[in-house]
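#onboarding

Welcome to the new folks! Below is a worked example of what a typical request in this channel looks like: someone posts a single protein sequence, and someone else replies with the predicted structure as tokens. Don't worry about understanding the tokens yet, we'll cover that in week two.

Example request:
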Amino acid sequence: MSEKRVLHNQAVIEEAALLFRQSHFSHLHGAYAEGQRVAVIVDPCWNVDHESFHALISCVAFGHRRVSWARLPLYITPTGGNSGVTALVRLDDRGRALVPSLPPGDYRLSLRFKPAQMTPVLSRQTERLAAQGEEEEERRRVWRGDGEDGAILWTLEETEEGDVQVAFETKEERFAGYVVIFNLIDPVSKQARYHQELPFQPARTPGKWEAWCSLGSRTEVQGPYELDFAVVAPEGTEP
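Example response:
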């Protein structure tokens, strides 16, 4: 991709992000916002249960421009006094995304500029064979991955004490004081079941920084989920 194409691509995405921040929608009304290079559209519709609704979100670049929308994360958060992410979807290569299930209410949108790699975690436990015996200890499961071009490593594990913990660590001093924002997303409804913001702090091992927390007991934290995370500076700008 040429430098001119990259700059143009970024300009369209940044304008779309600005339009999304200005757009609010609900179960009763959609949203439309238009700029110089792109328009964003949110089209809500009741689900068959009439207790939740879905929303089709589209980014339409003018002039038949080709834009690299694929895997850009779009956060859906409630307006008003509520906080936290309600749902998270990724745009496809045509700039579209479907939020399959939202509770009635008013929402706003936020587009992240970096593509997201949603990692499956906490898959369903396989049924134990009767021959294994009731007293046999359950196998502790661990999931691992990385981000920021390998600069940050993450681990989600079921501990021997029966808890589920998530941890992020880095050797890059530039991330000291930064905040890890992570979500566990229901792969079907795309709703966020767990949302945390964890600051990187000095680890016991010199030259490392870590951020971690417990999500609860294994019996309470039932998967499957998809893990998504972003690293932001204290003032809220991405590194």
